[in-house]
Design a protein that fits this description.
Elements lengths: L2 H14 L6 H11 L6 H21 L1 H6 L1 H29 L3 H21 L15 H13 L7 H11 L4 H27 L5 H28 L6 H18 L1
Helix pairs in contact: 1-2, 1-3, 1-10, 2-6, 3-9, 3-10, 5-7, 5-9, 6-11, 7-8, 8-9
């Protein structure tokens, strides 16, 4: 792995983190296309650069994160199910699931079909508030359980949380923004947990690669967030579901 690979993976992460298409899944498949061996460092790299993309949320939602105590409390409530699941299954996730292209492809395919069907059947509750602060603690915890499903590579954290919120009757804008904000404690904790267990094995060159991927994903994600917020005002997520199906089929045929 070299700096060019790190930049490419950073771009992929920044573009896909907040879209319902699974950034982790895309990183794993991109690494396969680049013929990068899925070492423990690459797995840690794929986790850590997600934090770079997530920090773009801090820049864009600085006021919501640091001044509205109501939202902070609800984010922490939503984070609890993921924290418990992540700690319980950390070894399984990193050892067996991360880097498994077959799991990614099938998760993309099944998740894409589900996303299309869900959007065709779902009717948005137009009377629901579109303010993130209006989300209740019970709803926040429920959304957190949905986020936990995304520990399976290819599921998509944003898709899981958004669908969970829509099932609760939340407005699309409210759950999309809540999903953005929930990513901050989630990926901060995931990165800190992984680095605490793995950082002492990294070389200086590997830390350089991490930095390049981190910065790249941060910059690209700033534009990705703005794109998604503009997109949801006029469109459903059906196109993302179709994309997931197509990319999964492409990799299935490629593997043959």
């Amino acid at each position: 792995m070299d700096i060019l690979h790190a930049v490419i993976l950073g771009i992929v992460e920044g573009l896909s983190e907040f879209l319902p298409i699974s950034s982790t899944g895309h990183l794993i498949l991109t690494a396969q296309v680049l013929k990068l061996p899925h070492t423990d460092f690459l797995k840690s790299f794929e986790i850590a650069i997600q934090l770079g993309a997530i920090l773009s949320v801090v820049v864009l939602y600085f006021k919501s994160l640091l001044t509205d105590l109501r939202i902070i409390k609800k984010l922490l409530a939503a984070f609890i199910p993921t924290a418990i699941t992540g700690l319980a299954f950390y070894k399984l996730i990193k050892g067996l699931l991360l880097g498994n292209g077959h799991i990614v492809v099938w998760s993309l395919l099944i998740g894409g079909a589900f996303l299309v069907i869900f959007e065709l059947l779902h009717k948005e509750n137009r009377s629901a508030p579109d303010d993130v602060a209006a989300i209740s603690y019970k709803q926040a915890i429920f959304i957190g359980f949905f986020q936990s499903i995304a520990m399976i590579p290819g599921v998509s954290r944003s898709a899981a949380t958004i669908i969970g919120g829509l099932l609760l009757g939340l407005k699309r804008k409210a759950i999309v923004e809540f999903s953005f904000l929930l990513a901050v404690p989630t990926m901060l904790a995931a990165t800190m947990l992984d680095l605490s267990k793995s950082a002492d094995t990294f070389s200086r060159d590997q830390f350089t690669l991490l930095f390049c991927g981190f910065i790249t994903s941060f910059v690209v994600a700033l534009f990705s967030i703005k794109f998604l917020l503009g997109f949801i005002k006029k469109h459903s997520f059906i196109s993302f579901g179709v994309y997931r199906i197509l990319i999964a089929l492409l990799f299935l045929f490629w593997s043959l």
